[in-house]
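Hi everyone,

Forwarding the result from last night's run.
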Amino acid sequence: MDKNSIPDNVETIHLIAVCGTGMGALACMLQELGFTVTGSDQNVYPPMSQFLAQKGITVAKGFDGANLAHRPDLVVVGNAVTRDNPESVRMFEMGLHYCSMPQALNHFIAADKKAVMVTGTHGKTSTASLIAWILTKAGLDPTFMIGGILNNFDSNYRLGQGAYFVVEGDEYDTAFFDKGPKFLHFQPHLAVVTGIEFDHADIFRNLDHVKDVFQQLLERTSAKSTLIAYDADENVQSMIGLSGGEVENYGVRSDSHWRLGNLGIDPPLSVFEVYNQGQRVGKFRIPMMGMHNLSNALAAVAIAGHLDIAAEVLAEALAGFKGIKRRQEIRGVKNGITVMDDFAHHPTAVRETIRAVRPFYPAGRIVAVFEPRTNSSMRRIFQNVYPDSFDAADLVCIRKPSMLHKIPADQRFSSEKLVQDLIDRGKAAYFFPDTDRIIDFLAREARAGDLILIMSNGAFDNIHERLLQQL
């Protein structure tokens, strides 16, 4: 009998790999809903270990079949968990009911709510965070789960009593027993598609493979739903005709339903106008940098428009948005040198992030520090694309990937080659085998007025705090 199902009368729930951002949030939400929650993970360390402990959730260090000895009513399996994980093996031996994170989220959290889903290769976290904050300021009391910590809430989740559930729609695969994308588990009432590019090279073969899963999403979209689609992405525009629901474009095209008008910079704020079908909605200010973030804000305004949120409320919400940890997050300023942390790793994200911060720091240099760390960036698929991404930087520091050994030798990205390509383009670029040498170099070379923009999807050996101590 297939036990990949959620039984009635669940009381106890165990999460395998509970310390991930999404799984940890789900554990806390389930605990707040009244379930008895336990978890396990290979790496149990702060801040997630402390966060879960504060919520009263018992977390076992390491994976062991004995962690299921209490026979939980349901086991939630994280997407990084393999079939031969000791707890997966024991789960099957015991005949326990099990499900994926999206299954649990849909069943326990989203079932009775209208899903507002943000999907696309870039901008999901920022756009979803803006929507969640706007809905909260509008008194709609939303529920949300997002892949980053919202500074306005100091959390990446919230259980609200309102009708709407805001969620990132991830194209990454769901679990070892469900290789389909996570976003297919949700039927959105309102959806945003920010763009479609090749990424996640460990999952997808090529761009066509990525487009295949977005096609599945679009084709199963309800006729009652509305899709907000980015007008400058050719891949998105080539596919929106597949949507089962209504489609509205957003961006800068004159014929788009939602359009950006006059743009300006008033540091630390960006200023922008919004037009809806040619009618001016208003002029807004937001403490975020770059055209990509203004596009994300426009998508959030479009969603707000469908929920009849007044322009005055929108203006207050956007101006009061405090951002997301690890998205253009200023970690400190020392001797006039600013250290900023950003999650950028895909070539497009790296390029747009550097471009975004450039106008806000006109007096000094943009020092771009990059760690290729994702399954895609450690492969050579973007080797010849990355050099273009650093054009707006004045000084570039590239670290050798710390986990390069996980990639087959004939597929590995070369940080040395990237540096040489940048030098050939006239850039001041340097290769570093480790983080310590980057810190030593920057401590010598940085000067007042510089912005040191550190880009990685990982902790980068705590380079931000260590660098600030050295400066």
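The mean pLDDT is 92.

Cheers,
N.
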